[in-house]
Amino acid sequence: MHRFLVLVGGWRRRSLLGAALAVLVVGVLAAPALAVHDTGAFELDGNAVTTHGAGSPDDWDRVCHQVSPSDCPTATDTNGATAVDWVAEPNTSASIFTGGGSKDPQDVSKWAWKDAGGLPDKDNLLHSFAARYAPTSGSAAGDQLLFFGSDRFDNSGDAQQGFWFFQNSISLGNNPVGGGSGFNGVHRAGDVLVISDFSNGGTTSTITVYSWDPTCTKTTGTAVGKCGDANLRILATSTSANCVGASPNDSNCGIVNPTNGTLAPWPYTDKSGNHSYLQGEFYEGGINLTDLGLGDRCFASVAAETRSSTSTTATLKDFTLGTFGSCGSSTTSQSSVTGNTSIGTGTVSGLTDSATVAVTGVSTWSGTVTFSLRGPIGSSRETTTTYNPVPVSNNVSTVSSPTADVTAAGDYCWSASFDSETDGVPDSADDGTNECFTVTPVTPSLPTTAGPDVNLGSPVTDTAELSGTSNQPGTPAINPTTAGAPAGGTIEFTLYEDDCTTVAAGTSTQSEDVNGDGTYGPVTVTPTEPGTYHWKATYIPAAGDPNNVGSTFNGDCSDDGETVVVTSVPSSMTTAQSFIPNDSATVSAPAGGDLAGSVKFELFESSDCSGTAIYTKDNVPVSGASPQTVNTTNTTVSTTSADVSWQVTYTSTNGGQRSIPASCVEKTALSIDNDGTVSSP
Predict the structure, then answer these.
(1) What CATH number should be reported for the domain holding residue 505?
(2) Using CA atoms, how far apart are residues 274 and 608, in angstroms rounded to an integer?
(3) Tell me, what's the pLDDT at 675?
(4) Strand locations in 9-72, DSSP E?
C-alpha cells in the first residue's frame, strides 16, 4: 500500500476556519471546477513523459528541462507554468528527518535533519517535483492548478509520502535541534496538508486536505471543517481519488505508475539497478486550488517527505526541499510632474502620483497603495505628507494618489508602497525612479523709472514697478492649512555717479518695504554737485523666502530711463546805489554863559521832513563855551532815495539860553543812475 501526503501553503489573510467553511460552501453551492486530472494543462497519467506533441499538456520532463536542462536535455520547457520545482537528492543518505519533534503537527522550528542514511529503501526519495498553472483560456480558465510528484529508491512494502507547500521560505539550517540541525523558517497560518493513501497496487486512493491552523489544539473529528490534529484543519477528503477513476468534478487526485518499466526522463537508478520505474516507484498528483477555495494562495518553498504511517502524528523519514515560484510584487510609480516646474504665483496645484502594482505567482490579489510626498527636501520646511491608502487589486492594478498642492520652491519626491492583503504576496515599494521633481523660484520683474532732470539743489526721484512675485510658502509647505503671505522684503534704491560705481555724494540708500506686486516709490535724493547720475534698484526677498529670487535693475547703468542730469543754477545781478547820510549841528549862544543842552537829529526820505524818520539820533549832548558842534554817527542806515531832509531840534537846559524848536532846514536832492541787471553767461 502506497500512501502520499501533500501540504499546500496559503495566501489570503483570513481565518482558517473561514477557509474551511468556504470549501464546504464551494462544494455545496458553487458550480464545480473542471476535474484536476482533465484540465488540459498537465498530464496526470502515471508517467513523467509528455506523450503528445508540442502543443500537448505538460509532463514532468518539461518541468525538469525548465529547472535543470542538463538532467533533461531532450525535452522542452513548460507551456506557461507559473511556478516549477524539480529537486534531485545528491545521494541516498542525504537529508533525512531526525528527532521526535519532526512531525507534521509540529511547527517547522521543531523539525530536525541530518545527512545519515539508514532509512528503509521504500522510504528513500530520489527526486521530487511540482508545477503550478493558471490557464487563461479553455474550460479551466481562471482556475489555479497545482501538480506535484516524486520517485523513490524501492517499491518494496508500503510507503507514505508527502508534499509541503509553504507560504514562508523554508531552508536547511545548522542550529542544533533534536540530535540534528534545524530548519530556517516557520509555518504560516493557512499552509495546507493533503494526504493521499494508495493501496491495492495503486488502484485505490484516499486523499485528505488539511490547512495549518494554530486554533486547532486537538483532534475533533474526520469531517471537513474539523481539526484532524493539532494545527491541522480538514479542508477536503475523498476515498476515490485515483486520477484514473476520479469523478468528472474531482478537485484532487493522485496516481502511481501502474506497470514496471515506466520510463524515467532523467537519470534514475532504483535499488534493483533499474533505470526505469517499477510499479509504484513513481507518483504524481494534482489539486484544483480554486475548487478547494485555495486559488489565492502563494507558495515559496516545497518539500516532499516520507513518513512511517498515514497518521498525521507519524514520524517523518526522508525529505527533499526546494524553492517554488513564490509570489512577488513590484510597484512602479510615475509622478505627474518630473524635472522642473515653476512655483508661479505661490502654489503648484493638482500634483499626483500613480502606481502600478504587478504581482507574480497568483492571478487574484488585493491590497492598498499608500502614497507619500516629501519636501522641500533638506530645508527647514521639509515634511512628509502621507495619504490614506488607496485600494488596488488584480482588477485595478494602477491607482492614483489624491492631488497635492505645494507652496515652497525646492526638491520633492513621491513614494508609493504596496501593502499586500493577500497571504504570500509580499509588500513592495517604488524604487524612486520618476518620482522626484523640482519646484523652481521666480525672478520678479523690477523695471524702474527715474524722475526728470533737475537743477542743483532740487531732489531727483526714482520709482519701481515690481511684478511677477510669488507668495511666500504656506504652512505646511505641502497642502497648507495657512496660506502664505505676499512676497516681502525690500527694494533698495541707490544713486550713483556717472562712473556707475561711486555712490553720489551725500546719498544714502533708500528702502521701500515690499508687499507683493505693486508700485514702490518715488524715493528722493538731493545731490550736492551737478553732474550725470544713474539709479540702481535691487529687490531683496524676505529672509527665508525660497519662492522669490532677488534681482537688480540697471546694474550696469545702461538704461537711459534711469539716468538723470543735475545742472548748476543760472545767476543775475542788479546794481543800486545807496548812501549813508550823516548831519552836524553847531550851536551858538554868545551870552548867557556856557552852552548846556542836547540836539536831536531826524532823517526823512523826503524833501520836507514828511513821513517817518528812517534814522533818529536823540539826546546828543551840547556843553561848553559857545559855539559847540555835534554830529550824527550813522553807519548802518542807508538810503537809495533821491530826496532826503533832516529835522534838527536843540533843547537847552541853561535857563539863560533858549531852545531851538524842530526845524527842517536841510534838504538834499540827488541824481541816481543805476545800470540795471547783469546776467551770467
Answers:
(1) 2.60.40.1930
(2) 170
(3) 67
(4) none
